Amino acid sequence: MTTQSLFRIASQTKPITSAAVLSLVEDSKIGLNEPVSHFIPAFEKTSVVVKGSDAIKTVPGKRPIAIFDLLTHTAGVPYGRETQLGMTYRAKGLGPAAGHGFYLADKDEPVCAVMERLAALPFMAQPGEAWVYGYNTDILGCVVERASGMALDRFIESRITAPLGMKDTKFFVSPNDRDRLAVVYGTGPDGKVFRAPEGQLGQGHFVDGPRKCFSGGAGLTSTARDYALFLEAMRNGGKLADARILAPRTVKLMTTNQVGTMYSTAGTGFGCGFQTVERVGGLSTASPGSFAAGGAYGTAAQVDPEARMVLVLMVQMYPNGTDVQGKFMRMAYQNFDK
Question: Can you give the pTM of this predicted structure?
């Protein structure tokens, strides 16, 4: 493990894809309240599962899913891991057939093809009525491709990673950098650490995979330095050195609570891409106004504007039964306050 090691950052991809979407909002190519069906027609009519029924019963969506719903995870779109939905999602190559839902790196097709299949599946809640974590940002990745006319990897590179100097943040690892990709470990039921197997829920297909499906929700690999550069730009209102990727008001949209108490009633909220901290104690000792993101492999990141701190922890454990994230954050604040 070195400072040059590459990590699968999983859901820490979401804030970067959200920033890409919002850059197109600034360009007036996407509207926040615009229906996603304007870009992916298959989403024109969606369905929602009726809770409490043994068999899958659905009702039509009450209104079209909007871009804002996807940015805030209030579209009702799950990962399909729920018992009620698992078999239906598996049949479309999603949910249990995609690791725990988030894993698309082994798909031999573009992300838009996968998202078009998703549109025909039942969702868990009506748009705007609940916070549901799922394929929202993968749908947005397809929207970026349709709105910009560019593949998602190229668009993110041109608008975000290249301007910020994030040279090691990519959807797939070059074969020449194979040895830089950190090994994934896991925590067993007995608490012992083991080397994760090959495949979806282990080492993955980030080097030798088909390299076709760019998952805006969980597909990027990065280094600690690179991700810290992105977070520092967010801390600075969308600017780092001479590069501006977003306007300050747009960054506020990402980093302030947009969902009321739908995400939590315990001191945190959710913006257009980040978890937000609403009060002291909401997220450990983070100051109100802080924002954070984490990934399935144990990675964690937090920005505390009041303390002028950017914290990045890179771990590769799946499943992760350790408490290293909480300890890391507490130790950082303890040392800062001394």
Answer: 0.98
